[in-house]
Amino acid sequence: MLITNRLEKGVETEYPVSTTKSSTHLPHLTPLCATLRSPRGFGPPKKTKKGSKGNDNDEEDETEEEEDREAGVIPEIVTNRMISRMGFTVGVPLFTGLLFFPFFYYLKVGLKIDVPTWVPFIVSFFFFGTALLGVSYGIVSSSWDPLRAGSFWGWNEAQKNWPVFWQSLWGGSKRK
After folding, report:
1. Which residue ranges traverse the bilayer (predicted)?
2. pLDDT digits over 99-143, tens only?
3. Of 125, 128, 157, residue with least CA distance to 141
4. With bands split at pLDDT 50, 70 and 90, how would you rate the model's confidence at 73?
5. In DSSP terms, which residues pair with 3 in a beta bridge?
6. 3-state DSSP of the chain
């Protein structure tokens, strides 16, 4: 499905955008169409140079600013690794916990077994809590080195990354 937009002639986009004129104007699509014309992503904005004055000091400042911005950026391959591992460590316990609801319903209605109310609560609490812990473990157990894939279970990476993770949470604002 193509997104209808009124583009000037000669403007190229990365995404398929129809250039046919339509009589209806949809104002709620204007931000979307503006995004399609010049996608910027979530990274830092690109700097444009407005003429060079020949100051070496300005160039040094720019390189220092770029290094500061890039220091906190997580590489895309590491982010994808974290997301895929979180999908597994969250998805399996969450799906298992959701499967217990129809199971307990079947026990109670189908087999007429009186299951105490606290049993489904404890089981769902355990599996949903495990899924919540899976978010942290998915982040910490993936290799943070873009050149190294890491192990299947990620236990060695988790042992190495837990101190860094806690330090970033508790002592992240303290810089020497």
Report:
1. 86-106, 118-140
2. 999 999 999 999 999 999 999 999 999 999 999 999 999 999 998
3. 157
4. confident
5. 17
6. CCEECCCCCCCCCCCCEECCCCCCCCHHHHHHHHHHHCCCCCCCCCCCCCCCCCCHHHHHHHHHHHHHHHHCCCCHHHHHHHHHHHHHHHHHHHHHHHHHHHHHHHHHHHCCCCCCCHHHHHHHHHHHHHHHHHHHHHHHCCCCCCCCCCCCCCHHHHHHHHHHHHHHHHCCCCCC
pTM summary value: 0.54
**Cβ-contact 100, 123 below 8 angstroms:** yes
- Find all residues with CB under 8 Å of 94, minimum gap 6, and list them: 127, 128, 131
